[in-house]
Write a structure and sequence with these properties.
11% of the residues are buried. It contains seven helices and six strands; from the N terminus they run ααββααααβββαβ. The chain starts with a helix and ends with a strand. Helices cover 38% and strands 9% of the residues. It has 234 residues and is mainly α. The chain has two domains: 91 residues, Multidrug-efflux Transporter Regulator, Chain: A, Domain 2 (Orthogonal Bundle), CATH 1.10.1660; 95 residues, no CATH class. α1 crosses α3. The longest helix is centred in the middle third of the chain and has 37 residues. A two-stranded antiparallel ribbon has the order 1-2.
Length: 234
């Protein structure tokens, strides 16, 4: 068969077939006119080379697998030399993964350092107790009034909802008990080394720091006139 026919049947390009032949992986017969004549055996070999290449085994390293086929085995990895080829490929991948993992960690560290440099978090001006910094508040936060829309909620039973907590545990709303509890709920924890959604910083309180939230945390101990309450972020 012609090289174009082989390439089509094996699912590769003509250029790839010529490359495999240049490596000595396939050796087609020659016709009287000098043209190459590829056999079904070459189709099988080219398919195997292509399949191994998709697994990360370079064409130049497929010789043990092809030899296994050419000696009559049903599968290209029926021979000990083929298994050794798998092990070598796995070792190469492991080394590359470790190198890339270390490189990613170094880049992540440098990204965080660069993003934190010159900010309140980077300079230590953030109150570590509650995770808020006044320097992070958006300019001119809006003031909301009480429109009474939530008056009907007073006295209702809390739903059986369990939320994750920044303390590492969980908070189940209907199991809080009779003590006064203040829940600080927010949809996103921002990071300096990751972009926030567009327009996020313009939402009052979206950055996690509001005067109300800081007031609850800062004056928790002073509120002795009311039943004890717990402060947690869910």
């Amino acid at each position: 068969m012609r090289i174009s026919d082989l390439a089509r049947q094996a699912g590769v390009t003509v250029k790839a077939v010529r490359y495999y032949e240049s490596l000595g992986l396939i050796s087609p017969a020659r016709l009287a006119n000098g043209y190459r004549d590829y056999s079904p055996d070459e189709v099988r070999l080219v398919r195997e080379i292509h399949a191994l290449g998709r697994l990360g085994i370079a064409a130049a390293r497929t010789r043990p697998f092809l030899d296994c086929l050419e000696t009559g085995h049903q599968h290209a990895d029926d021979c000990p030399s083929s298994l050794a080829g798998y092990r070598d490929a796995i070792s190469d991948l492991t080394e590359r993964i470790e190198t890339l993992t270390a490189r990613r960690a170094a880049l992540t560290r440098r990204l965080h350092e660069a993003a934190s440099r010159g900010t309140a978090i980077g300079t230590g001006d953030v109150d570590e107790a509650d995770g808020c910094g006044l320097g992070l508040l958006p300019p001119g936060p809006s003031v909301s009034g009480d429109d009474g829309a939530a008056d009907h909620l007073a006295g209702l039973r809390m739903p059986a909802i369990t939320l994750g907590s920044t303390s590492g545990g969980t908070v189940t709303l209907d199991a809080l008990g009779a003590a006064r509890s203040i829940l600080y709920l927010y949809p996103l924890t921002g990071r300096l080394d990751a972009d926030l959604p567009d327009g996020w910083g313009t939402i009052p309180g979206a950055r996690g720091c509001t005067a109300e939230a800081r007031g609850f945390a800062d004056h928790q101990v002073e509120r002795t006139d009311l039943p004890p309450f717990a402060f947690d972020r869910a």
